[in-house]
Structure prediction request, 187 residues.
Amino acid sequence: MQEFKSFRKTKTERLNEAIDFGATPAKPKTLTPEISSMLNARLGDEYTAYFFYRNAANWCKNANYKKAAAFFNTEADGELGHAQGIQDYLTQWNLIPAIPQVPTALNFAGLVEIINSAYDLEYNLLIKYSEDQKMLLDKDPATFNFIQKYVDIQNGEVEEYSDYLNALELVNPNNKFEVLYFEQTYF
Prediction:
């Protein structure tokens, strides 16, 4: 029985044999510079949208469009969440996000201008994300899948602002009472 004891190893001995403590750790994979650059550009677009909606909310609050102000506050929060999602994805791939400078102060002449500009902003983001997704199809399937949710979000945003633009066709944008009625009805 004694002679077999030498063949038995303790748990610690087995663990030490399984782990090569002298080995150099492997370097984790990262995204290509092209894909990293693309995601950082979209990060800038999301922050641009955030500040657009934050300024729109402030303008609406000052103009006493309370429902629109609340709506645009929510939109701003959503854009901030989108930016955070991109940053999380970049750090997941062992990259530090490069947050670009974006315009932070905007001036508006009216609620109709804000809605027109918001539609353009969201539509342009849809185009950018869609073009990015095409580029990613064969290059990086994981990032292609990641970008798909942003394409879906942008489709929804374009649809929503398209509905607002259609509803604005029913009012005279120069009549403050009609614009107020629009705001009360649609926000």
